[in-house]
Model the fold of this input.
Amino acid sequence: MIELKSVAVFCASSNDANPSYIDLAQRVGQRLAHEQIGLVYGGGHSGLMGAVAQATMEAGGEVTGVIPGGLFSNGIPEDEVTTLEVVADMHQRKARMYELSDGFVGLPGGLGTFEEVFEAATWTQLGLHAGGRSKTIVLLDEDGFWDGAHALLDKATASGVLTKTNRPIIQGASTIDEALQILRADRANDLPQFVTDKHNNGA
Ligand code: AMP
Done:
C-alpha cells in the first residue's frame, strides 16, 4: 500500500462530453478533496478537466494545473486553482504531471487523454518515472467507456506483443472506491520485474 498524496487525472477537454462523464469527473474531484489527495491535471477550464478541478476546489481540496504557456486559450484562471504551473511545451507538461503524481486516473476522454494514459504507462514500463517508480494507471468509467481499450490490451497480451507482466500497469475500475484501492495497492510498483522482464525479453 502506498500513501496517495497526489493523483493525476487525464480526461476530456470537450464541452460536448456526455453529462454523466462530467458528473463522474465532479465526483472524482470531491472524493480527492475529501481524502486530502491533491489533484494534478492539465490546467484546462473546459469539459471534464474543468469539472474535476472546480469540484476539487469547491470541496476544499488542492489542485495543481500544469499548462503549456500560450498553447491553450481555455486555460483555467490562476485564482481558480491552488497552483498553476506554466511550462514550455507539451513534453514538459506531461513530464511534470507524472513527476507530481503517485498514480494516474484516466476518465473518458479523446486523443489527448489516450496519449497521456498510454505515455504514462510506457514510462512505467521503461522505469522512467522519478526514482524508477512504476506508477499504476486506472481507467475509470461507469458505462464501459474503456472496454475497447482493455480489449486491445488483452489482445496485445494474448498475441505476445505486450508482456503479461506489463499488462497490469493499466487497470480498470467502475467505481471511484475501486480506482483508489487499485492506486493505493500500486501493483505496478510492487512488481519491479516489469522493467527486468522487458529487458530479458528484449522488448
Ligand atoms: P482530449 O482527451 O483530447 O480532450 O485531451 C485532454 C487531455 O489533453 C487533458 O488531460 C490535457 O492534459 C490535454 N489537453 C487537451 N486539450 C487541452 C486544453 N484545451 N487545455 C488543457 N489541456 C488540454
User: Anything to note?
Assistant: Helices lie at 19-34, 47-58, 90-100, 111-126, 147-158, 176-185, 187-190, 193-200. The chain has one domain: 6-191.
